[in-house]
Structures are given as C-alpha cells and as structure tokens.
Specification:
By secondary structure, the protein is α/β, with parallel strands linked by helices. It contains 19 helices and 17 strands. A seven-stranded antiparallel beta sheet has the order 10-5-6-9-8-7-11. Strands 15-14-13-12-16-17 form a six-stranded parallel beta sheet, with helices on both faces. Helix 11 packs across helix 12 (216-222). The longest helix is centred in the N-terminal third of the chain and has 35 residues, at 5-39.
C-alpha cells in the first residue's frame, strides 16, 4: 500500500515538525546547561567537588523545568476551545494541531518522569509522578476511573514539592571571578604565608607545595601560574523554576477559576430518556449557554460524586430558535450506573425496543464547557467522511442535528456517514434523526448530500430496524463490517482532486485502519485528512 507524500504531509507533517521542535528545545537546553556546569568558570570548584553528576543533574533539571511549564498548557481547555474557533485561528491545519494536545500532555508527563532527580523532595516528586502515570494507564482508567481522577489531582502536590526542591540553595556559584580566577593560587592562603616575591616563586614552589612538581624548572617553563590575593566567594543560585512555571501555572489557575465560576449554576433537566442497549439521553437548558456542533461538555453531579466528573459529547446543540441541548450516555462503570439510578426508576432500565421518557424531580446537575473537538471541522470541508463505532456516534449526532436545522451556511456539500454497531437495537438511538434528515434532503432534491451506510457487525441472520417509518434505513443496512479500502476508493473516485475530511470516533482497530488509508496514495488526486476524537 503506497503512501502519498501529500496526504502524509497533510496528516502527519505539522505534527512531526512540532515534535522535532520540542525535541530540539529539550536537547539544546540539556546540552547548554551541561556545558555551563561543566566548563563555566563560576562553577569550577563545584564541578571539582561533585564531578559529572552535577552536570547531568542540572541539565536534567532544566529539561524538567521546560516540560513542567508546557504540560499545563494542553489542560487549559477553555483556551483551546477559544483558539479552535474559526475566526481565532484561520488555518485549518493549525486548528487540527490542537487535537494533539492530549498526546503532547502525555509526552511531557513521561519526559518529566524520566528526568526527575533524587533528593528528599525529589524522591517524593518521583513517587507522586509514579502514582499519576500508573493510574493514567488505559486499564486502570477503564476499570476504576476514580483512581485515575483522584491521583491525577496530585499534580498540586507535585508542584509544591517542585517549589521546595529548588528553594534550598544548596548549589552555589562563584561571584568574584575577577579577583579570584578559577584554579589560581591564593598568596594569602595558609600554604603561601612564607612565599617571597613572585619572581622567586619557582625557587620556593617545591617547599610550598610538597605534593607538587619534582622539577621546578618544568613548572616554570611549561606552566602558567595564576596568583590571586583573595579567597573565592560563593552565592546560592536563584531558583529558575519559578521563571519557567509561574506563567503557565497562573494561566492554568485563572482558567480553572473561570471554569468554576462559569459552571456554578446548575442546569435545568427537561427530560431523561432510556434507550435500548443501556444508553440514556438527557436534555437540558441553561441560561446563556452556547455551543458548536462537535463540542463536548463535562458533567458533574454532586449526588453521585463530590469531585468526580466526566466528559460527554453534545448530541444536540442550542440554536437561535431553541435553547435545549442534550447528551447520550452509555451505562458503563460505577459513575454512570449511580447517575442512571438517580435519574431513572429501576423499571425503565429494562426497556429494549422503545425509548422510555421520564419526568420527575432530578438531582442538581452542573456542566462545564463547552470544549472543542476535531469534529467541529467536519462542517468546514466540502466533503466529509464520518465513521462511528457504537456509542461513538454521539459527536456526529450534533452535526446531523445542525444540518437538519439549516445546512446552507456551511461549506459542507457532501457527507458520508458510516455507523457500525454490534446489535440492531443500537440503531434506535438516532434512527428517527437519520430518517428525518434523509427525507429532508430528498424533498429538497439533494439526495446526494448525505450518504448513510449502517453496518451490523454481529448477527445470527437477516435483521431489520423495526418500524414502518425506518424503511429508508433498512435499505441502507448491511450485514458485516465495511470494506474500508473499497469505500475509500469509491469516495476518491467520486471526489477527484478534492480534500476529504476523515473523522472517526470508535474502537482503535477502526481508527488505525482509517489513519493508514488516509495516508495511502490514490490515482484520483483526492487527499484525505484524518481526524480522531480525543478528550483533552
């Protein structure tokens, strides 16, 4: 499978360029600090005492300072959402780079762990880092999200220890280099109390330095001796860590404070709907809440957990005519189970076919956001390919709802929508939306605007979506998995010379295939730009 250099540059070029710049900064900073402590005259005596360990530890500390400042920036979600707005960053390639913020955060975290240095506070920092990184692994996040959430908030402890680590002032540099050059001989020292005039230094040098040269003539001929009249004076280094992390840390704290103020008012829950296959839909309203299709919010319910919260993609965004917005939740894990028990009575959890709508007194629910995601770009391509796996359909639901309201203001003119599910009941989550959207474009004489393909990956026989009104979807329902290569070839053939945005939200197996095919060469001049969902 040949790789197209144009597609590779579009998908990977900027990412690898930024990675190269980041690596170069780390290497340059490490090497510059290493040379400073190895050859710098102000650290001559310190280097004589501590040797190579001093150079390595201080060079590692400089890399640590850089990454401790950078690691906070990807977590400024409000800032990223602001920058992602089309008017703030006009370049789509630059906006797509923001989608790698989570990967960059992880990369900086691993680098910090590698370059952490020992010592009392250093050992505590390494212990905190070990807990944070271990709890961040995929296995722990899936099995027990609480552990990940609580250990990751130890970053406050880490930064406190980092401040203490550099405040001891143990390392000192020489301040009087003019009056005491490194390595000079001090005539006022104890060894030179009986030394006569400098011209007689060679006659008495052997007496003054019993362990010196056995041949004074060799010393005077081959060695230039510096003489100074003052003892070296030393001063503690100014802690530079403050200079590195104060800006990003203040920015992050200000952003968290802004988010706390913005999310302090609870939403009003309009309805809660129980869908088949353990999916729950929540519709709500909040004053002055605005969001773009493809964005996500963070839900916080104090009745479920005082500190824990989770991100969910908006499946319905507020518009100028309606203020309602909503999310769909897959019931997996302790938090969603407890949340469901608060919102729905036990009897409604057995609903398998038809949705069950519940209206009652709900607990307080707070939201934080909205925050940006790569799916905001799907409306900015002329042609987009949206691939969803199971509950991964949620970011595309808000896009479909937006197109249902009005598709003309957007650049998008053709949408390929692929949805892969394991059971037939999962299609009921958005079957009504797909049917209404399909009929809308047929009535407007634009049947080619949206191409819907539904795939049932696991089945014992031929199945159909139950309901007479779903006949349009039954004709687009396929048994088995998509043949991705043929699908890409067909899209490239129908859109010659165009740029197609590829968006995926689903299992990693599908994501890897789409990523590989997006970089593949084709004979039609079509370029595929790959995007993948990744919560920051």
């Amino acid at each position: 499978m040949a790789v197209s250099w144009r597609s590779w540059l579009a998908n990977e070029g900027v990412k690898h360029l930024c990675l190269l710049i980041w690596v170069s900064l780390n290497v340059l900073l490490f090497w510059k600090t290493f040379l400073l402590y190895n050859q710098g005259p102000e650290y001559h005596y310190l280097h004589q005492m501590l040797g190579l360990g001093l150079c390595l530890s201080r060079a590692s500390a400089s890399v640590l300072n850089l990454n401790c400042s950078l690691i906070l920036l990807p977590m400024c979600r409000t800032l990223l959402a602001y920058l992602r707005g089309s008017q703030k960053v006009p370049s789509r390639r630059t906006r797509r780079l923001l989608d790698k913020s989570r990967t960059f955060h992880i990369t900086c975290g691993v680098t910090i762990c590698i370059f952490s240095v020992p010592g009392l506070t250093g050992v505590c920092m390494v212990l905190v880092l070990f807990l944070m990184i271990t709890a961040s692994t995929y296995a722990i996040r899936v099995s027990n999200y609480d552990i990940f959430w609580y250990t990751h908030n130890l970053f406050f402890v880490f930064y406190m220890l980092l401040m203490l680590h550099v405040s001891g002032g143990l390392l000192k540099y020489q301040t009087n280099l003019d009056t005491h050059p490194p390595g000079c001989i001090n005539l006022n020292g104890t060894h030179f109390q009986n030394t006569h005039l400098p011209e007689h230094l060679s006659d008495h040098f052997h007496e003054s330095f019993p362990g010196g040269f056995s041949k004074p003539d060799e010393l005077t001929q081959n060695t230039f001796v510096k003489i100074c009249m003052e003892e070296p004076r030393f001063q503690a280094n100014f802690p530079q860590t403050w200079l590195w992390i104060s800006g990003p840390l203040c920015l992050y704290c200000a952003e968290r404070l802004y988010r706390c103020i913005r999310s302090n008012k609870p939403v009003t829950i309009i309805s809660v709907t129980s869908h088949p296959s353990d999916v729950m839909e929540i519709r709500m309203v909040k004053e002055n809440f605005k969001a773009r299709p493809g964005q996500y919010i963070i839900l916080h319910c104090p009745s479920v957990s005082a500190l824990e919260n989770h991100p969910f993609t908006l499946t319905m965004c507020p518009t100028e005519t309606k203020a309602t917005f909503g999310v769909h939740l897959k019931i997996v894990g302790d938090w969603t189970e407890r949340f469901r028990d608060l919102l729905l009575p036990p009897s409604s959890q057995d609903s398998e076919i038809l949705p069950f709508i519940q209206s009652r007194n709900y607990p307080k629910l707070y939201i934080d956001g909205p925050f940006g995601s790569p799916f905001e770009e799907s409306l900015n391509y002329e042609v987009s390919l949206c691939v969803a796996g199971g509950i991964g359909v949620t970011p595309f639901a808000s896009i479909l709802n937006t197109l249902l309201d009005d598709w003309k203001p957007y650049k998008l003119r053709r949408l390929y929508f692929i949805w892969v599910c394991r059971d037939i009941q999962s299609f009921h989550w958005f079957a009504d939306l797909l049917c209404v959207l399909y009929n809308k474009f047929w009535q407007e004489n634009r049947p080619d605007y949206v191409n819907i393909q539904l795939y049932l990956s696991q089945t014992d026989g031929i199945q159909k979506i139950i309901g007479e009104k779903y006949q349009a979807l039954n004709s687009r329902l396929f048994i088995g998995r998509p043949r991705w290569k043929l699908l890409f070839d067909e899209i490239a053939k129908c859109n010659r010379g165009k740029t197609v945005g590829v968006f995926c939200c689903g299992p990693n197996s599908i994501s890897k295939i789409l990523h590989k095919l997006s970089n593949r060469n084709n004979s039609y001049g079509t370029r595929f730009e790959y995007n993948k969902e990744s919560f920051s």
